[in-house]
Amino acid sequence: MSALDSIAHANSDVIVLAAGSVSYVYGAAGDDSIDRLNSLAGGFNLKLVFALNSGTHVSGVRIAIADAAGKAVLDITSEGPWFLAKVPAGTYQIVATLGGNALKRKIVVGAAEFRTVDFRWASE
Predict the structure, then answer these.
(1) Which residues pair with 107 in a beta bridge?
(2) Pick from 21, 69, 27, 22: which is nearest to 48 by CA?
(3) Could you give the CA distance from residue 47 to residue 85 in angstroms, rounded to a whole number?
(4) Residue 18 CB: number of other CB atoms within 10 A?
(5) What Rg, from alpha-carbon coordinates, does the chain have?
(6) Residue 112: pLDDT band by 50, 70, 90 thresholds?
(7) 16: number of Cβ within 10 Å
């Protein structure tokens, strides 16, 4: 994976990070953070949401995204329950791990389409 670059957005304290060809940002579930992330959502095509089955949002989720060929695209820890990413159009395997419990999703993401994927765990 290449070095991370960060890009600050005007009128926002949210920092968009980049790893290779993927840009991403994560944030908390508070109203201000949600508003900031929603204002940035148009620049992304993938949203991941992390919560317990009870509905309580969680953070500290390790995210591993691989393309259809199995090549790692992104491997980071989200410090917020909302994660936005801009990935090239294609098929991906996403593994989200919380407290050693991994959940997997295979998804297809389009270039202009906005895809939301929920991950829910029984407990931390």
Answers:
(1) 92
(2) 27
(3) 6
(4) 17
(5) 14
(6) confident
(7) 19
Contact 26, 84 (CB under 8 A): yes
Domains and CATH numbers, the chain: 5-121 (2.60.40.10)
Q: Which two tokens stand for residue 13?
A: 């304290």
The per-residue pLDDT for range 43-85, each reduced to its tens digit, is: 899 999 999 999 999 999 999 999 999 999 999 999 889 899 9
> Taking the CA of residue 71 as centre, how many other CA atoms within 13 Å lie in the half-sphere pointing to its CB?
6
What does the block give as tokens for 44?
């992304």
- DSSP states of 66-106: EETT--EEEEEEESSSEEEEE--SEEEEEEEEETTEEEEEE
Q: Is the dihedral of CA 42, 81, 6, 75 positive or negative?
A: negative
The type of residue at 75 is D
